[in-house]
Amino acid sequence: MVVGGGAAGLMAALAAARLGAHVHVCEQLQRPGVRLLASGGGRGNLTHTLAVEAMMARFGRRGRFMQPALAALDPEGLRRLLAELGVPTFSPDGFHVYPSSESAADVQQALVRACDAAGVVFHLACPARSLVLEGQVMQGVETAGGLLPARRMILATGGRSYPRLGGGDQGYALARQVGHTITPLLPALAPLVTREPWPASCSGAALPDAELSLAQEGRSAPSARGALLFTHRGFSGPAALDLSGDASARLQAGAPVSAFLNLTPGRRTSDWLREIGLWPRSGGRKTIARWLDDILPRSVAAALAGACALPDTLTASHVTQEQRQRLAEHLAAWPVTITGTGGFEAAMVTRGGVTLDEIDPRRLASRLVQGLYFAGEIVDLDGPCGGFNLQWAFSSGWLAGRSAAAP
């Protein structure tokens, strides 16, 4: 029995059925794989081209937990499996991997067809209510449609993110019911909200490469680098999304979070001081505003000039040392204050979940309940943008399905 018909659940069902198991999938929505349809903005960013070691590193200190699952189905293995199912893939930028059709629907449909062909039985619009145990041994699941008996159970219910696509607390409640510990649940891969209003004046503008960093707290100063999109409330795009889980954790203390925006990663304040010092030689009559327009989108350049109190008519030859210092500091580390995120409604994944200490990574089996397994977002693992979380869903589903089907 698989509870949850998303990417992890479909892959678990297929893996188990291919080993000869009689598999049932209990899904609360009217059709399986709905969240998969939204991946990559509908294009289906399925995985990436990084090696396994590099992928685990992107998940931080808990990444080593993934090794057995990635050994069972790594990114290349996933691409081969999808090709076998009639969904060839490609990597247009050498990193992100999409179906060649650039349609996530093709992946969802192929997985459902493969499950149907393997004899998987779907119970749709059938929310799971509670797990049924005898002692600490799995016996089945009580659903809205009655009891479904099963000695092997895979929880692949996803997290709280995207509630309109089925996200919620169902899986956590089931795991907690049988004794598992759930670490704090926070929105991750979500937009950031700032106290400062200036990002709204840049709404719609984007930087192809920027870096956001949280202020150092102890030894920790998390940062994220990538494309950045300015919104009417703050920031989005990979640089903001990848930092949002860490920002969410700090926001739990109830206070805003100090952060810094580097508009030109790789350049520090000292680098900009040298460069700004050369501007008078290259064009002393050229205004600072014009110089900034050459570097940044016009709306961002205007916001930066305003934050640094630089008049529109100020020329490079008349900029003072104090103005040069202020501009250099803002280019390299523009202070911003994060007051919130887009919440679970806008989050792509959930940070937190079933604690990894209670799961055997070699089989993704519960250490507390005989016959219980986990796959996907329900466990306490989350990674950055770029197909990382979907690869974990597929890999963990594959391993959990094979483990549950083993004699």
Helix and strand content put the structural class at alpha+beta
Counted by DSSP, the helix tally is 14
Gyration radius (Cα, Å) is 24 Å
* Biggest β-sheet strands, sense, barrel: 6 strands, antiparallel, barrel
Strand order of the largest sheet: 12-15-14-13-16-17
By oligomeric state, this entry counts as single chain
Average pLDDT figure: 96
Question: Percent of residues in beta strands?
Answer: 15-25%
What low-confidence regions span 5 or more consecutive residues with pLDDT below 50?
Answer: none
- Specify the helix fraction band: 25-40%
Total number of beta strands? 21
**So what's the overall shape?**
elongated
What is the straight-line distance between the termini? 15 Å
Salient structural properties:
5-stranded parallel sheet; 407 residues; 14 helices; alpha+beta; 6-stranded antiparallel β-barrel
Describe the structure.
The chain has 407 residues and is of the alpha+beta class. It contains 14 helices and 21 strands. The protein has helices spanning 7-18, 52-58, 67-72, 75-84, 104-117, 170-177, 198-201, 238-251, 269-283, 288-295, 298-307, 321-333, 343-346, 388-405; strands at 2-3, 24-26, 47-48, 89-90, 96-99, 121-123, 128-134, 137-143, 146-149, 153-155, 186-188, 192-194, 206-214, 223-230, 234-236, 257-262, 334-341, 349-351, 359-360, 365-366, 372-374. The strands form six sheets. The chain has a six-stranded antiparallel beta barrel with strand order 12-15-14-13-16-17. Helix 1 packs parallel to helix 14, helix 9 packs across helix 12 and helix 10 packs across helix 11 (298-307). The longest helix is centred in the C-terminal third of the chain and has 18 residues, at 388-405. The mean pLDDT is 96.
